From TrEMBL:
Family annotation (SUPFAM superfamilies): PLP-dependent transferases
Signal sequence region: none
Domain Aminotransferase class V: 1-127
Entries under InterPro entries matching the protein: Aminotrans_V_dom, PyrdxlP-dep_Trfase, PyrdxlP-dep_Trfase_small
Phylogenetic placement of the source organism: unclassified sequences, metagenomes, ecological metagenomes
Record's protein name: Aminotransferase class V domain-containing protein
Pfam families linked to this entry: Aminotran_5 (PF00266)
Length: 142
């Protein structure tokens, strides 16, 4: 009947504002924007020598998340370089899904690097990420 402690009114307010914003923008519009950027990132990374993408060609039923590795680099090292040298946030490792990584054969190399595209990302962000990945992939040659 009664809840102990202080209700998370700030969290509830934030959730309400977030839901309102999504409904105002339109989920279809947001999804289309995210998928346009996801396709641009996927296509840009495909052309980078040494980058392995774990992604299907058809993005019809795909979400705006891409997983990849750079040959010869641990995912953690790639993520650290992206963070420190390029101010790019990503997630590295097994992503709480070790069985998926076993199927992808990335578990033994400690997972992968994951980019998640959101509604506030821009074409410029995507191009910056592609350029950063090219730079990191070039490091493996030296």
């Amino acid at each position: 009947r009664l809840e102990y402690g202080t209700p998370n009114t700030l969290g509830i307010s934030g959730l309400q504002a977030g839901i309102k914003w999504i409904l105002e923008q339109g989920m279809e519009k947001l999804h289309a924007h995210e998928m346009k950027l996801t396709k641009k990132l996927r296509d840009g990374l495909r052309d980078v020598d040494g980058v392995t993408l774990y992604c299907q060609d058809d993005l019809t039923d795909h979400i705006s998340v891409l997983l990849y590795n750079i040959d010869g680099f641990e995912a953690l090292n790639t993520g650290t370089i992206l963070d420190v040298d390029h101010n790019i946030a990503c997630r590295t490792g097994l992503h709480c899904a070790p069985l998926v990584h076993e199927q992808l054969r990335t578990a033994k190399i400690h997972g992968g690097v994951r980019f998640g595209i959101g509604p506030f990302n821009t074409d410029e962000h995507i191009q910056t990420a592609i350029n950063a990945m090219k730079e990191i992939a070039e490091m493996r040659k030296s």
